[in-house]
Specification:
By secondary structure, this protein is of the alpha/beta class. The chain has 21 helices and 26 strands. The protein folds into four domains: 232 residues, ATP-grasp fold, A domain (Dna Ligase, domain 1, 2-Layer Sandwich), CATH 3.30.1490.20; 99 residues, D-amino Acid Aminotransferase, Chain A, domain 1, CATH 3.30.470; 120 residues, Glucose Oxidase, domain 1; 93 residues, no CATH class. The longest helix is centred in the N-terminal third of the chain and has 19 residues. This is Pyruvate, orthophosphate dikinase.
């Protein structure tokens, strides 16, 4: 079975679409606001000559029209979806919904601002009983065709029809269909065009799900952002022993090192990796089994890293020994990796020092300066669980089993079999996340790195039962979970060369001085820490007119830095200079 990408351009009629864009012309860059980050990355990869399955995209304007029209597909979109599918059929010589060479598609979300794992993706769409028989005949593998049909039914039942039953463990399509019908009173459509319309509407709707709203609120992303919908020809990592799927980071998202970092799952689809239900193999497995594919992948990652002047998170699928790239985006990374990558890119000549200080946030620096386990603290401690470090850090708290408990328990340690987008609100609230299943590119790992929350994954069966209800210390740097509370110690800016260099660059860019305690400070000085406790409420203290320097913990917060800038003070006194400098640069609106 082959879905090799045709070099032929789509018909000129694609330019007449109102709701669709076909981002195939390498000379015409599509608007990221219209097509979303996922489709934009497909255009970018294809413009670089990399192998990408063909696709078209339903724009964010169609999403806005969907909600404005009472959650109904806008007029004309159904016809345009059919025209878009015809373009894919022409490019691949396949037929949607039947024929000897059937076409299946993925329906994927894609907001203008990356929100990994927050919105829905439906794979293998277009599968019916007839298509299953055609796939079995084409591939010579009825078991593969049956599995594709079963997987699609699971996706559609869960994400479009809202089935709450556990479908993934059911043995076949008939069992999945029966469970969906019993739970929802609805059936998976046998008409592939009805499937497509339902999937597009479901992806639109997922942009306003609880998890998406919580993610946008946490990161200050506009709530009316919506999503584009990318409809892309399927490639099958679960086809045979020469097929698989994986995720590759061009630089380590944990340490920032300039080395490949990722995982590969033979005979799997991308959802298997990110779901955390399966623990994939290290990327070296692909190198050992398919060295030519591995070399092609690494070369593509290096080029995307250089072209994007940033670490890349790349999704890929191998089908019968042929590499296909599905997405490339700036990688979510830990605070440590953000600092290392920013400094390294300056050394490589990819960005300037002024750009580097805009690549790192004040909160990330505060994260780096948080405590770590004191040397020898774990000696003799009771080890409760051991897994893989997905995001370093140390946290102590009560282990809880649900995201709702994490929201109501201060410093909670959220322990799950695996996480899904429905757990995000609890992950935001938790001090650390621990999972039984999954690897370093699972949902739990990716989201925890984005949140810079300590995370250990793949701790094995029984971890939830062993931990929940106990006070534990998570040493996510070492991938360990210990009983009780262990002593910690904190790092300093002066002890880290990357932090020192960033501080030098930030000092040159910041609109205000940041002085160490005890340094000579221009007067008059206003010290908020000397105010009586009853004068320190929820509001920031008023800075007296003519003040040249402010001192006090309140003025090291983002709100405090903003108030100092508004008041025209010359300096802020702070124990840790770099986070205050970066906050001042951000609030001043300095350019990158």
């Amino acid at each position: 079975m082959s879905t090799a990408v045709s070099a032929q351009a789509p018909p000129a009629a694609s330019g007449s679409f109102r709701w669709l864009i076909v981002p195939d012309d390498p000379a015409v860059e599509p608007s990221r606001d219209l097509v979303g980050g996922k489709a934009w990355s497909l255009w970018r990869m294809r413009s670089l000559g990399l192998r990408v399955p063909p696709a078209f995209v339903v724009t964010t304007e169609a999403c806005a029209a969907y909600f404005a029209g009472g959650e109904q597909l806008p007029d004309g979109l159904a016809d345009e979806l059919a025209a878009g599918i015809r373009l894919l059929e022409q490019q691949l010589a396949r037929t949607f919904g039947g024929g000897e060479r059937p076409l299946l598609v993925s329906v994927r979300s894609g907001a203008a601002i990356s929100m990994p794992g927050m919105m829905d993706t439906i794979l293998d769409l277009g599968c019916t009983d007839e298509v299953e028989r055609a796939l079995a005949a084409e591939t010579g593998d009825p078991a593969f065709a049956a599995e594709v049909h079963r997987r699609f039914s699971c996706f559609y039942g869960r994400l479009v029809l809202g089935c709450t039953e556990e479908l993934d463990e059911l043995p076949d399509t008939a069992a999945v269909r029966a469970a969906i019908l019993e739970d929802t009173g609805e059936s998976v459509p046998t008409d592939p065009w009805e499937q497509l319309r339902g999937a597009v509407a479901a992806v639109f709707a997922s942009s306003r799900s609880r998890r998406s709203v919580a993610y946008r609120k946490h990161y200050g992303i506009p709530d009316d952002l919506g999503t584009a919908v990318t409809v892309q020809a399927m490639v099958f990592g679960n086809l045979d022993d020469d097929s698989g799927t994986g995720v590759l980071f061009s630089r380590s998202p944990v340490t920032g090192a300039r080395e490949p970092y990722g995982e590969y799952l033979p005979r799997g689809q991308g959802e298997d990796v990110v779901s955390g239900r399966v623990t994939p193999k290290p990327l070296e497995h692909l190198k050992d089994t398919h060295p030519a594919v591995y070399d092609e992948l690494i070369a593509a990652a290096d080029r995307l890293d250089r072209e994007g002047a940033d670490a890349q998170d790349i999704e890929f699928t191998v089908q019968r020994g042929e590499l296909f790239l599905l997405q490339s985006r700036p990688a979510k990374r830990t605070a440590r990796a953000a600092v290392r990558i920013a400094v390294a890119l300056v050394d490589e000549g990819a960005i300037t020092p002024a750009q580097a200080v805009r690549r790192v946030t004040a909160e990330q620096i505060r994260t780096l300066l948080r405590p770590t386990l004191t040397e020898g603290a774990a000696d003799g401690a009771e080890l409760l669980a051991s897994g893989t470090s997905a995001c370093p850090g140390v946290a102590t708290g009560l282990a809880v089993a649900t995201p709702e408990e994490a929201q109501t328990t201060p410093n909670a340690i959220l322990v799950r079999r695996s996480t899904s987008p429905d757990d995000v609100h609890g992950m935001i609230a938790a001090a650390a996340v621990v999972t039984e299943q999954g690897g370093t590119t699972s949902h739990a790992a990716v989201v925890s790195r984005a949140l810079d929350t300590a995370c250990v994954v793949g701790c094995g069966a029984g971890t939830v039962d062993r931990l929940v209800g106990r006070i534990v210390t998570v040493d996510a740097t070492g991938g360990k979970v210990y009983a009780g509370e262990l002593p910690t110690s904190a790092a300093t800016e002066a002890s880290d060369d990357d932090l020192r260099r960033l501080a030098e660059w930030a000092t040159a860019q910041a609109p205000i001085q940041v002085l160490a305690p005890g340094a000579d400070a221009p007067g008059p000085v206003f010290d908020a820490d000397e105010l009586p406790p009853d004068e320190l409420g929820e509001e920031l203290p008023e800075i007296p007119a003519g003040t040249k320097t402010v001192r006090g913990a309140v003025f090291t917060t983002p709100e405090g830095v903003r108030a100092a800038l508004r008041s025209g003070v010359a300096a802020i006194v702070a124990e840790h200079r770099l986070p205050v400098l970066l906050a001042a640069i951000e609030h001043s609106g300095g350019t990158s």
